[in-house]
Design goal:
- A hairpin with a 4-residue loop joins strand 10 and strand 11.
- It contains nine helices and 18 strands.
- It starts with a strand and ends in a 7-residue tail after the last helix.
- The chain folds into three domains: 90 residues, OB fold (Dihydrolipoamide Acetyltransferase, E2P); 78 residues, Irregular (Dihydrolipoamide Transferase), CATH 4.10.320; 215 residues, Chloramphenicol acetyltransferase-like domain (Chloramphenicol Acetyltransferase, 2-Layer Sandwich), CATH 3.30.559.
- The protein has 420 residues and is α+β, with helices and mostly antiparallel strands.
- It is flat and about 85 Å long.
């Protein structure tokens, strides 16, 4: 008997998905464990395997189409089986057969928009003395032939100033050829161009980013603490560690490690707001923000305080590569207790970041800049990195945040202390 396959919920934040690719077509035999389709969620594109055998009788969501979780993805059954009753029950909100995989959910259907009303004809205005265009439609767009527009652009003529002699006041090539500017508009405008834009549908990832960060920004009372860190010793230590050639330690690896150790010493910052209670995490799982084409992913370096620079660097590099290829799995981005956003490699000196729920804090890391500093009463060249801690004031107070930053500063200004 026919079985309904529904759009799966592949992540905790997923409310809808996009079919990125079908691996089967209607009429194909499908075996349990075979990849049926690829589903794009808010975080990644994942292969979706069939849980039963059968012939693919119906595709409910076409490739590239967005549909809500539990919408009919496909129907599997015996060849030639009548599934009209299943589809009719879905349309009318009735129950599908007991053999359906999940509880009934509305089918995602294309939005049917009413046809736009036809505009009533309006009388053309009388020509004006400065020959301003009388060839605009109701939307204010110029009525002109493509050739006339191209010719006007080539000659530097404002098409709006050309009187149209074509049907309905349409500007044609002859009008542009014969156009003579009046004294009032004998000088071309300072900038002549064509306004244009492109629009793209919002990706699942961008929708979730917008929803979660807007909720964070407008529900968590943010405050910010900024601190300068002397990176001279960090630069020297990194150079020494990388001299062997066996490993390549980055400044980001050092920041992640220092942050993890600072969190162990300042557990109030390694916390979460849960509404009616505050969770103080004893383990340190650091989310590292990674920029991808559609937005931002935050894979998690687990128990970062127990790992060395090289191991942290290898994990972050692997996360970044899989994130760009949309190969991260749900367990890769779940369970963070604190988040780091580093834009230093993009030349950003200082910025503030929005807290990544459920964390109570996020650290924004800027680039290292060579500036004059005072040491032992003398002004000398120095290398300074600015960091800004965004705090949820419901959980973390200013003194707690400041204590964490001072601990972080101590580790980065004396990297050898991170190896003890």
């Amino acid at each position: 008997m026919a079985e309904v396959v529904r759009m799966p919920k592949l992540s905790d934040t997923m409310t809808e998905g996009v079919v990125a690719e079908w691996h089967k077509k209607i009429g194909d035999q499908v075996e349990s464990g075979e990849v049926l389709a690829e589903i794009e969620t808010d975080k990644a594109t994942m292969e979706f395997e069939s849980f039963q055998d059968g012939v693919l009788l119906h595709i409910g969501i076409e490739k590239g189409t967005t549909a809500a979780v539990d919408s009919i993805l496909a129907i599997l059954g015996e060849e030639g089986e009548d599934i009209s009753s299943i589809l009719e029950a879905e349309k009318t909100g009735g129950n599908t057969p007991k053999e359906s995989l999940k509880a009934e959910a509305p089918v995602a259907q294309k939005e049917n928009k009413p046809a736009a009303p036809v505009a009533e004809p309006k009388p053309s205005p009388a020509p004006t003395t400065d020959h301003k265009a009388v060839h605009s439609n109701e939307n204010g767009r110029v009525k002109a032939s493509p050739l006339a527009k191209a010719l006007a652009k080539e000659k530097g003529i404002d098409i709006n100033a050309v009187h149209g002699s074509g049907d309905g006041g349409r500007v044609i090539k002859r009008d542009v050829d014969e156009y003579t500017p009046s004294a009032s508009n004998s000088f071309p405008s300072a900038s002549i161009g064509v306004e244009s834009y492109t629009e793209e549908p919002v990706s699942q990832m961008r929708k979730v980013i917008a929803s979660r960060l807007a909720e964070s920004k407008f529900t968590a009372p943010h405050f910010y603490l900024t601190l300068d860190i002397d990176m001279d010793n960090a630069i020297s230590s990194r150079k020494t560690m990388n001299a062997s050639g066996d490993v390549k330690v980055s400044f980001n690896d050092m920041v992640v490690k220092a942050t993890a150790l600072a969190l162990k010493k300042n557990p109030k910052v390694n916390s979460s707001w849960l509404g009616d209670k505050i969770r103080y995490n004893e383990h340190v799982n650091i989310g590292v923000a990674v920029a991808v084409t559609d937005g931002l992913l935050v894979p998690v370096v687990r128990f970062a305080d127990t790992k060395g620079f090289a191991q942290i660097g290898a994990e972050v590099k692997d996360f970044a590569e899989r994130a760009r290829n949309k190969k991260l799995q749900p367990e890769d981005w779940a369970g963070n207790t604190f988040t780091i956003s580093n834009l230093g490699m993009f030349g950003i000196e200082e910025f503030t970041a929005i807290i990544n729920p459920p964390d109570s804090c996020i650290l924004a890391v800027g680039g290292i800049k060579q500036v004059p500093v005072v040491k032992n009463g003398n002004v000398v060249p120095g290398n300074v990195m600015k960091v800004t801690l965004s705090c949820d004031h419901r959980v973390v107070d200013g003194a707690s945040g400041a204590a964490f930053l001072q601990t972080l500063k101590g580790f980065l200004e004396n990297p050898v202390t991170m190896l003890v």
